[in-house]
Amino acid sequence: MFMGEFHHNVDEKGRMIVPIKFRDDLGSSFVVTRGLDRCLFVYPQAEWKKLEDQLKNLPFTKKDARAFTRFFFSGATECELDKQGRVNIASPLREYAQLEKECVIIGVSNRVEVWSKNIWEEYFAESEESFSEIAENLVDFDL
């Protein structure tokens, strides 16, 4: 399980250090793709396979299903860590997530998310204000 928040930088070549706590669970090869809310989703191969199987079952006759699978799979790229524990993030993915320098890497259960620091701070501030309401709206969410 991935959890926690880490702050790193993307260098001029598009490389980013992956937090040590995430490296073992990501494995030697993992998938990075466009996520929702202008972040990147990072999946270990086993989780990617589960997601791929679910998305394959969406009806291709439905416009929304076609649009979502195109969005999700067209941005996906298989990645590996270099010897320094860095991943090279493809230029189109960096542009999508607006990753220029400072970034925030968070663990979200079965995946890792990579955010531009500015976008993360905006998102977190907006969500923090309505966190109680969000939790209340989740039907079977007993904490």
From TrEMBL:
The keyword Transcription applies. Coiled coil: none annotated. Residues 5-47, 76-119 form the SpoVT-AbrB domain. One of its GO terms (biological process) is negative regulation of DNA-templated transcription initiation. It comes from the Bacteria. It is found in: Cytoplasm, Nucleoid. One of its GO terms (cellular component) is nucleoid. One of its GO terms (molecular function) is transcription cis-regulatory region binding. Keywords: Cytoplasm, DNA-binding, Repeat, Transcription, Transcription regulation. CDD domains: MraZ_C (cd16321), MraZ_N (cd16320). Belongs to the MraZ family. Forms oligomers. This is Transcriptional regulator MraZ. It comes from Halalkalibacter nanhaiisediminis. The gene is mraZ.
